[in-house]
Amino acid sequence: MSHLPTDIFQLVFGHLDAHDVRNLRQVSREFYELSNLRSIWEALLRRHVILQNIPIPRLNGKSVESLTARELEEALHRALKLRRNWTKESPRVERRVNLDAIIPHHRNVSLHFLPDGKLVSLSMSRNRVFILQCWDLCPSEPICLATRQFDRCGGLAINKSSGTLSDGIVAILNPHLEILCLDLHATDPTNGFRNLATIQDVTSGIHFFSGSSILTKDTHGRLYFWGINNSQNRVQLQNPDLNQLTALLDVIVTQEFVLALRATTLELYALPSSLQSNAILHPAFIHSWPWRVDNATMTMRQRPPRRSSERTTKDVYIVMRFGSYFPWAINLLHHYEIHANPLFLKDSPISALNLPYEFPPFLRETIGSPVRLHATSDLAIGPYGSAIWTDSHTEDYFDHADHGQRLAGRFSPYVVANGEDNEEIELSDSVATASATSVYAYQEEDSWVRIAFDETEGRIVLGRGDGVITILEYI
Q1: What's the Cα-to-Cα distance from 424 to each of 219, 241, 358, 417, 438, rounded to whole Å?
Q2: Which of 49, 193, 408, 466 sits a CA distance of 20 to 30 A from 74?
Q3: Which residues does 402 contact at the CB level (< 8 Å), separation at least 6?
Q4: Is the alpha carbon torsion for 166, 208, 107, 372 positive or negative?
């Protein structure tokens, strides 16, 4: 063994578990030195984390390529520790913090994570006074970086582009469209938000904001996609088959297309290479949902690295709760997936004959999630396969079922699509094919009204009806 080349030992080490490599440090000085090589831990991290599609928490903006051997070892440990805890039946809360409301009894109406992990919250008082805040959650005591009060708020959207904080991070209607950035040099949080631009525009809603692109709704419910640097050139997204405009619940926008999730339809629009004033776009594809959607969210799925010759379009992950003819939603969550079309010609225009996805979306599973009459529920999903929601399933924890809330989730690992796996289950509004795989928290109150989570950092935030925000961390 001692006469084998060092390269052979490095190759063997790369196929071991991290625990085995640490044990081998005690065998000999040579093994100790080998176990501290950067190439060893880079190979282990790639094999056990990156290729397994597991996020790496607490990189703080660093790239894997810039990490030292010790940092790679620690990153591997953190990633595997978080994944084990996150997917347990009862994940262990490693840290719990409450952020008190600046003004008591302000109801949380919106919670969003910025691309860098900071939290943006919006709360509203009974007399419709709005408080917008931005929090840094990394310190042991979270820091409020910025806060601003509004007398009017017609909606907001978080900048999905991972630019600098001096760029616009929030677009808000007040009542005109304002683009706000963070002033990290401000000594007072009341001066933490700085106005980058105010656009005098007749707008009644904001649905998407990334870089300089924005998707808004006018007072007639019509959708417009445009750039904030040239507000005159905009295109209207119009479905001519809709007799009555329905609510837009979520949207995915790339440089090539817009995928719009409405209460009754799913619509794919091909974006032109340049925006022209008064242009109208019709969907290249329309899918009608079997029932009206009560609540829904969607995201593009992260996936393991692939060869450069393979497709680059990411799959889409949708979780929704349908409504019903009764004054409550059905007690099921429906998990749909849309896989990238392997026959899509990326160099050709998107059309009904050349779609980036395989339509219609197929139903992967239905998840049992009961909600009582008049109870508040919310849901969120992450790019690595986690869906988290609040519901009324509390009889397993208390002696009653007439009040209380559960914070539950289900993790769906990334699966490479093939013909056999894509057999759709029978659609049902009453039968669940799956249940929650994790219960993160539960309570006897009914105070949780909004949720958001950062899947990479293992962090969940719960917004309460009294304005308090609870942070749960799982690493």
Answers
A1: 39, 26, 13, 12, 24
A2: 408
A3: 372
A4: negative
CA atoms within 13 A on the CB side of 454: 25
Kindly state the tokens that stand for 262: 């409405």
Q: For residue 310, count other CB atoms closer than 10 A to its CB.
A: 9
177-182/193-199 β-pairing: antiparallel
Alpha-carbon span 296 to 251, nearest angstrom: 10
C-alpha to C-alpha distance for 414 and 337, rounded to whole angstroms: 11
Alpha-carbon distance of 449 to 463, in angstroms, equals 6
Token pair, residue 331, equals 């007690």
Contact between 71 and 454 under an 8 Å Cβ cutoff? The reply is no
Angle at 71 between CA 70 and CA 74, to 5 degrees: 90
Q: Considering Cα of 67, then 70, then 71, then 76, what sign does the dihedral take? A: positive
Backbone φ and ψ for 309, nearest 5 degrees, come out as -80, -10
What torsion, rounded to 10 degrees, do the Cα atoms 398, 400, 406, 409 define? 80
- pLDDT value of position 420: 46
CA distances from 129 to 90, 165, 281, 376, 424 (A): 38, 26, 37, 22, 47
CA 57 to chain centroid, in Å, comes to 15
Residue indicated by tokens 């799913």: 266
pLDDT in tens, 121-140: 999 998 889 999 999 999 98
Look at 37-41, 54-58, 431-435 and tell me which has the smallest mean pLDDT: 431-435
pLDDT one-digit tens code per residue, 265-291: 999 999 998 877 778 999 999 999 999
Q: What is the CA radius of gyration of the chain?
A: 24
Question: The pTM is what?
Answer: 0.90
The CA-atom distances, in angstroms, between 247 and each of 216, 218, 265, 377, 459 are: 12, 13, 10, 18, 29
How far is Cα 37 from Cα 55, in angstroms, rounded to an integer?
23
DSSP states of 55-94: -----TT--GGG--HHHHHHHHHHHHHHHHHHTSSSPPPS
User: How many helices, marked H, and strands, marked E, lie in the chain?
Assistant: 5, 29
| Residue from 200, 275, 263 nearest 237 by CA | 275
Burial of 14 (0-12, 13-18, 19+ CB in 10 A): middle
Cα–Cα distance, 442 to 448 (Å, whole number): 10
**CB half-sphere exposure, 361, CA atoms < 13 A:** 27
Q: What percent of the chain has pLDDT over 90?
A: 63
- Please choose, from the candidates 256, 204, 259, 264, the residue with its C-alpha nearest in 3D space to the C-alpha of residue 237: 259
